[in-house]
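May I ask for an example protein's residues together with how it folds?

___
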Amino acid sequence: MVGGHEPNGLRWIADAYDVGFTLTLSEGLSPQELLHSIGAEAPHIVSLTRFAAYALLIRDADDHISDLDFLDWEDEAEVARLTDGGFLPGPPDTIVRAGSVAGWAYALEDFQCRTGTFLAALSQRGRAFSIHRNAKGFSRIGYALHGELVTSFEPGLPHLTNGAPADTALGFVPDGDEPGDVAFLRFLEVELGLWIPWEETEAELPAAAFTDERTAS
C-alpha cells in the first residue's frame, strides 16, 4: 500500500465524516453495479464531488439554486441533469457516492445508511460490509456473504447482535480502546489489505440521490 493515508487506510473516514456516515464495501462489483443494487437507475447517476453532494444534501428546499457554489445555475443542461437524477429541486434524503479499490466497490454517504439495508444484494459476488455511525455516535456494522446476511451488530454490545456473533463470523473483538466503528475499520484494513485514498473520495464519483418516495428497483 502507498499514499499519505497508508497508516490510516480506512479509519480516516470516521474523522472526515464526523457527524455521521456509512461506508459500504462490496466485493467484485463496479461502482455502477453497486448503485444499481441499491435502487439507482443508470440515467439518474451523476458524477459529483463530495463538496457538491454535501451542498445538495443540506440545502433548504426554499433556497434558490444560484446559492449552490459549484453549479452554474444558468447551465440548463446541468440543472436538468441534476433534476432528472433527483438531486434538485428539493434536497434528497441521502446521496450515495461510489468508487472502486482493489477488486471492491465502496460507497460513502453522509448521515444515512441506505446501503446497509441492501447488504445481502451487495454480497452477490462475495463479501459485503457496512459500517454506520449515526449523529449520536452509535454505530452498527453489517456483514453479508453470497447473498445472505451473516451478522449485524453494535461493537461492544453483543446482546444487540442479529445473526452470528461478530467474533465467530469475522474474528472481530473490539478492545475498547477506540470507538467500535474505528476499531472495525482498523480490522478491515488488516484483514482485507484495503485503503481508500482521501483525495479520490473528494473528487468526482458516480452518485445517486434517494428520497423516501423513490423505491429500489
The first strand starts at residue 21 and ends at 27. The chain has eight helices and nine strands. The two ends are 37 Å apart (CA to CA).
